[in-house]
Amino acid sequence: MIKDWALLGTVLGLLTAATFAGQWLRRQESFELDQNTVKAFNSRVNTWWFFSVVLGFAFFIPYLTVFLFFCLSFSALREFITLTPTRAGDHRALFWVFLLFTPSQFLLVARDKYALYSILIPVYAFLFIATRVALAGDCQRFLERVAKIQFGLLVCVYCLSFAPALLFLDCEHSDGDYGNARLLFFFITMVLFSELLQFLGSRLFGKHVIVPTIDDSRTWEGVLAGGAATAVLGLSLYWATPFTAWWQAGAMSFLIAVMASAGALAMAAIKRDRGEVTSGTLIEGHGGVLSRIDAVCFAAPVFYHVTSYFFAAQS
Amino acid sequence: MITETLLIWTARFFSGVSVRWVDSQPDKCQRVYFANHMSHLDVVLVWSALPTDVRRLTRPIAAKDYWESGFIRRHLHKVFNALLIDRKEIKVHQSPIDLMLREIGDTHSLILFPEGGRSHGEEIGEFKSGLYYLSKKRPELELIPVHINNLNRILPRGEFLPVPLLSSLTFGPPMWLEAGEPKTEFLARAREAVVRLRDK
After folding, report:
1. A interface test, pick of B153, B169, B200 with most A CB neighbours within 10 Å
2. N or C: which end of chain A has fewer CB within 10 A?
């Protein structure tokens, strides 16, 4: 219990520091950073606040956290499909994707049915979507349409669901009931912190852009700096995790940072391809959930499985 | 009251709508909102996007054959106070325009879809002449163009189950029938006003 409060306190301290830094930057005019950068920085800090508050509940009511992740998933998926052109023939398949597969996935996560939720979308939803789209009788660009729906479902629902699944992971070193809430909190903090630091690093001493055609602000220097800073934070939070040695917490944090960057990069490719054609007026009022959680989506399943492989209780 | 709130929130949830007023403000003065028509949800959505006090004074025009079939629809159209028009039997002495004008009096506003039916694709169809005759009899009515985006993917033609994607609704600046403006020119101008909102 003391560890819970200590972790919450540390994150709260970091967040407050980041918020003050953001506000201070906003007032500086004779600085190299332009206002858009500061705005982007502040919006990342706000996302972090949002997640921290939401996950604060995880310490008390795990099922509420699963439900909130379901809501996030649902919003992200509807943004994803809105941005993706689909045809009338996909309508019925999409209906089941939204109202059957998405809730089922989170229901199974909440019931801790790993054997089912780990294959529900890659196997059953995959076969179902292909069949349902075929039944609709429209063969134009069939493969492309099925792939789009499947991709959206995998990224926005399947991958993201591994974050709340951490709550039910049986770790050897979780003390008491709430040890897993700390693991989830640790994971989300690392993802958002790494993205924030990556962003700052790229702006401050970024030279080599990784893929200029996709994301012109993400640099090797930024990713490395973000990864290093995240690893250091992970090291210092080692006491809050189920990992057995301090270097493991650092290595896991670095892994999270790398996957977070990968996620943001892949989603940037999709956004770049679709352009601002539809996103302008359609997504506007919804805050762009998708672009806020892309990093979490890619990091969650990897973190879950590596943790489970090395640190889960042998049963 | 409860059904109204429920209906509004259900419509907002399934359509994920973001409402924008471009060079235009919600107002209780008498208006005719005219929009492109893509889905059965359009009627409910435009109505529910208006602020409560304006909404209470606004009556959507809806097709009698659709909204009078089935128990739920029959109940629903009463909730949003629809003005049902018989598309099949338009008689000379009972013209829909006269009916509309009689029903709105000097207080109510109207929501109508001048394409006459739901359009098939992305394109906005030619406008029917109702809007013109309405303005000719009451030239002081403010005409507000409304553009509905993406709702055809949420509830397309021939489907009865909605897919909860995102849509947007744009209200444009008011326009009026110019004195002596020919019918075809006016209708083309009105259609152009809706099309223009799509790109804004």
Report:
1. B153
2. C
